[in-house]
Specification:
Elements lengths: L1 E5 L2 E5 L20 E4 L5 E6 L4 E4 L4 E3 L5 E3 H12 L3 H42 L4 E11 L2 E2 L5 E2 L2 E11 L7 E5 L16 E5 L8 H24 L11 H7 L1
Antiparallel strand pairs: 1-2, 3-4, 4-5, 6-7, 8-11, 8-13, 9-10, 11-12
């Protein structure tokens, strides 16, 4: 990537140089270089100001009237290298280094954005198989209802306002109230700023929602008990898995 300035304006372009490898130890990343051409697109000299050297890739000769041959390419490169030490040129290089840093930061942001896009696309395909609808909107009326030990969970309430139905859903519905219940997901809605995407399943007909919740608690309780017995069953009656003194100190 070549960054250049012209009349105070900075621009960049991508060029391929067959003479160099992708990582060349002769150059310093982010430090400006000067490429010298002679009528063609082939580089015949590279000025490296940071190291105060130049690389002569090609040259051309001039025979004076006394039949003396001058290696003109070397002379021009040396003069150019001497001139880049002047303060105005040094200031131009400082501007180029700043432009490179901004370009690099911009590239990092773009790459992160693209990775996030790929992750979201993968997540979308995975959730699409399990969901009946997908909608885009914003969140309002967020209220926190934290519960302490032993639940340690924020049973939040909020309203999802549908701005656009993307797939499925009831177009007549514009707001969906949510009340966070007991689930494995410990993440919380921390802010209502920005746009949200919700996936969901159509509400099934449930005759006794309270009994369904009790059944869920039983199922989750059995899983937790089995996991506890698998990890600590041999230690029951021998030692405590919790620091009771620390818990009592919190009361």
């Amino acid at each position: 990537m070549v960054i250049r300035t012209n009349d105070g304006r900075t621009s960049s372009l991508r060029l391929t140089f067959q003479q160099f490898k992708a990582c060349d130890t002769r150059f310093e990343v982010s430090k400006p270089l000067i490429f010298l051409y002679w009528k063609t697109n082939d580089i015949w000299s590279v000025i490296i100001p940071g190291k105060n050297i130049y690389l002569q890739l090609q040259t051309f000769y001039y025979d004076d009237k006394y039949q003396k041959r001058w290696e003109t390419g070397e002379i021009i490169s040396q003069v150019y290298l001497d001139n880049v030490q002047h303060p105005p040129i040094v200031q131009d290089f400082a501007a180029l280094e700043g432009a490179y840093e901004r370009l690099l930061a911009h590239g990092v942001t773009i790459n992160s954005h693209r990775r996030l896009e790929r992750q979201l696309a993968l997540l979308d395909r995975k959730i699409a198989k399990e969901s009946d609808w997908k909608a885009e909107g914003h969140v309002t009326k967020l209220e926190h209802h934290p519960a302490g030990y032993p639940l340690n969970k924020d049973f939040q309430t909020f309203t999802f306002v549908v701005d656009r139905w993307i797939r499925g859903g009831d177009r007549s519905i514009t707001e969906i109230p949510f009340h966070v219940g007991w689930c494995r997901n410990s993440e919380e809605v921390r802010s209502t700023e920005g746009t949200f995407i919700f996936w969901g399943k159509n509400k099934p007909p449930v005759e006794n929602a309270e009994w369904e919740f009790v059944s869920l608690l039983k199922e989750e309780g059995r899983k937790s008990a089995e996991a506890f017995l698998s990890a600590h069953g041999g230690e029951i009656g021998k030692r405590s898995t919790a620091d009771l003194d620390a818990l009592l100190a919190e009361c």
